[in-house]
UniProtKB/TrEMBL annotation:
Chain residue ranges for the region called Disordered: 310-334
Domain AAA+ ATPase stretches: 24-310
Organism: Rhizobium grahamii CCGE 502
Protein name: ATPase AAA
Compositional bias of kind Low complexity: 310-329
InterPro entries in alphabetical order: AAA+_ATPase, ATPase_Atu1862_pred, HerA-like, HerA_central, P-loop_NTPase
Superkingdom assignment: Bacteria
Length: 504
């Protein structure tokens, strides 16, 4: 069945029609600088096609959640674990429900991981659920960057791989990618090249204009026209749009984004006591924790050189004699050195907010600096050791049968959750107060207390823990398989409160 939706008006006043069935087979790329009308175009496309095809929107700014009010899209908060997102994506395909994955409020690396987990969950659905889905990804250059940025390599590779699967291999699985970007030069070429339909909006940079002209088959001397396009005006090309470059103007939409372009408005009259209002602090300001997200300062080169010189063997033999080979270490000595290096890394306060792959690279470098022989541990083993170390378990507790059960249970959760699980298990085995939301969040590598509560909810859904409160409203986490539980703890306690409680 051929379904044409009205995207607006073309030159000469004719309607600009987009063939949805052809779009599902050939994909779409939208490009335009900020303020060119990309989000307006995507909203028009989504509204006009909502009754014909299932839709999934990857929304980094939360602009498209308003579609749920009129068209019934399910809003999925991206502030979940990767396993949760993959499961939700799989069920989205099974039940053919349109949804919006909102990533608003997450840091860029968390957005990339959440989007990748969700796209992979849709991609890995069983063959019987390969129904047609229009997958719209706004700000695609964030999820498929052309070059490495400030995010970790594993997050970039995970996100880029998911976007590549969507655009290159998604068609046979019913996934039709619609990607929008501000900068073609920042978008990975193997992702952009898979689109056969294009809508090019206002662009100012020469490199982006040249790429847009190449994609549309235009002479590069004609690329200057992209600077003159008005907001909401695009040049269309592709089997679902037009066989020749066609200027179109996008029509009106029925819904609106929560955010809009700023409008000029006069300033209010300044009150008489304006200086008192500005310079007198609110009492609540002193109770808010100060969160500093600045990256740790790099180590001075002199410190690194000094450390290398201390760890180098002494050259006591004459130069003419061959240097003696390094003495072999016993298994106990090697284990002591591995544990010492691991503790050095984890003692850094910023280590909790760095990915395991980054810590692993630092671990390998420090092993070479310490001249530790032998094959280094693998990344999965390193993650396991990090999770156990972060739990804070002591040697005596580690020998108990209950802790052995906790280690066995932890193998049933994903690698990124093992540190949190073992920290809670250690508190239960030792009868310590239940960790606060802030402490759980820090163990997971985030500042979000809301995410900490969701982690507890996830563990409870899996049947590994039972969360309840005592008469004073303090939280208790029980482990049925271990027959133990934590002491009551204040979920809203700060780090200072927990340290004071431990000292008492």
């Amino acid at each position: 069945m051929q379904v044409g939706i009205d995207m607006g008006s073309a030159s000469g006043g004719n309607p600009a029609t987009l063939d949805i069935e052809e779009l599902l087979a050939t994909r779409l790329l939208v490009q335009g600088n900020s303020g060119s009308g990309k989000s307006h175009l995507l909203r028009r496309l989504l509204e006009q096609s909502a009754q014909w095809v299932q839709q999934v929107i990857i929304d980094p700014e939360g602009d498209f959640v308003t579609l749920s009010d009129k068209f019934g899209h399910v809003v999925v908060d991206g502030e979940r674990t990767e396993a949760e997102l993959a499961g939700i994506a799989n069920r989205i395909r099974q039940h053919r429900v349109s949804c919006v994955l909102t990533l608003e409020g997450l840091e860029i690396e968390q957005q990339m991981r959440a989007a990748a987990a969700f796209l992979n969950g849709m991609f890995d659905a069983d063959r019987e659920f390969w129904y047609p889905v229009l997958v719209v990804v706004d700000e695609a250059q964030m999820f498929a960057p052309s070059v490495a940025g400030e995010v970790s390599d594993d997050a970039r590779k995970m996100s880029l791989g998911a976007m590549t699967n969507l655009m290159c291999r998604g068609r046979k699985r019913g996934l039709a990618g619609v990607i929008a970007t501000q900068r073609l030069a920042k978008l990975a070429k193997n992702v952009a090249a898979e689109a056969s339909n294009f809508l090019m909006g206002r662009t100012f940079l020469d490199i982006d204009m040249a790429r847009a002209a190449d994609l549309l088959g235009m002479d590069r001397r004609q690329a200057e026209m992209f600077r003159d396009l008005k907001r909401g005006n695009f040049v269309a090309l592709g089997p679902a749009l037009s066989r020749r470059p066609l200027p179109i103007q996008i029509g009106n939409v029925e819904t609106s984004a929560r955010s809009s372009s700023p409008k000029l408005m006069p300033l209010p009259d300044a009150p008489q006591d304006v200086e008192d209002l500005i310079f007198t602090p609110d009492p609540e300001e002193f109770q808010r924790p100060i969160v500093r997200r600045a990256p740790p300062a790099p180590r001075p080169t002199t410190d690194i050189l000094a450390e290398l010189s201390r760890s180098a063997p002494a050259a006591s033999a004459p130069v003419s004699e061959p240097r003696s080979s390094q003495p072999e270490l016993s298994a106990e000595e090697r284990e002591e050195r591995l544990a010492a290096v691991l503790h050095e890394i984890l003692d850094d306060p910023s280590s909790g907010f760095r990915t395991d792959s980054v810590l692993y690279q630092e671990f390998l470098v420090r092993l070479r600096m310490r001249r530790v022989p032998g094959t280094p541990m693998s990344l999965p083993e390193f993650r396991r050791r990090v999770a156990i170390s972060r739990s804070g378990v002591d040697a005596a507790t580690a020998e108990t049968e209950a802790w052995g059960t906790a280690l066995s249970l932890s193998s049933g959760v994903t690698d990124d959750l093992q540190g949190v699980f073992l920290m809670l298990a250690k508190a239960a085995v030792c009868g310590e107060p239940c960790p606060s939301d802030a402490r759980i969040a820090r163990a997971y590598g985030t500042h979000s207390a809301r995410r900490a509560r969701r982690l507890l909810g996830y563990f409870e859904e899996q049947g590994t823990v039972v969360v309840h409160t005592d008469f004073a409203g303090k939280r208790i986490v029980a482990f049925p398989d271990m027959n133990c539980q934590t002491a009551p703890g204040d979920a809203n306690a700060t780090d200072a409160d927990e340290m004071r409680s431990a000292a008492e």
